[in-house]
Structures are given as C-alpha cells and as structure tokens.
Design goal:
Elements (H helix, E strand, L loop, with lengths): L6 H49 L3 H14 L6 H25 L5
Helix pairs in contact: 1-2, 1-3
Length: 108
C-alpha cells in the first residue's frame, strides 16, 4: 500500500485561505475603524462648536477655541468640518426658535 503525504497540500491550502481572509478582512476592519474614528471626530467637533457658542461672542473667538481644543488633543481637521458643525448648530437654533414661536400661547 502506498502512503501519500498530504502535509504540503494542506499547508498550501491553509496559506491560500489565510491570504484570502487577510485580503478581505484587513480592508474591512480598516474601513470600519476609520468610519468609527470619523464619527467620533465629528461628534467632538460638534461638541466644541456648541461649547464655543456658549462661551464666546465673536465668530473668530469661537473658531480659535475649537481649533485650540482640537490641537490640544493632537487633532487637525479641515475647516469645512468645523463649518459644517456651525451650520448644523444654526439650523438647530433656527428650528428650535420656530417651534418656540409656534408654541407661544396666551393661556386664555
């Protein structure tokens, strides 16, 4: 009876499978991590913009505050991300004001 050693074939199959998994898994994990980091960064920028709105009067002071706080954390974001958060704040503020105006009643 002839004995066939399947070890090299199994090693090759394991190598191919691990390469295939790596080709799919690593990019997926990287994309997922980057997406989560992006969401966290946008949330932080939004929080800082909202805080700046409460702390400072001028737009320049507010922008300086947001940039300074981000730099303290070692983060650098495009000005467009900050502007988007400011725009969102303005929309929220105007929507809330319109609701409050509509809710005003004399109580009669």
């Amino acid at each position: 009876m002839m004995n066939i050693d399947l070890t090299p074939i199994l090693q090759a199959l394991i190598g191919l499978l691990s390469a295939a998994v790596t080709m799919k898994l690593v990019p997926w994990l990287k994309a997922r991590t980057e997406a989560q980091n992006g969401e966290m960064l946008r949330a932080l920028v939004k929080t800082l913009v909202f805080a700046a709105e409460q702390l400072y009067r001028s737009g320049e002071q507010r922008l300086s505050y947001v940039k300074r706080e981000l730099e303290k954390r070692g983060l650098h974001v495009d000005i467009a991300v900050i502007e988007a958060a400011v725009c969102e704040l303005k929309i929220l503020f105007s929507t809330n004001n319109q609701k409050n105006i509509g809710d005003d009643t004399d109580g009669d």
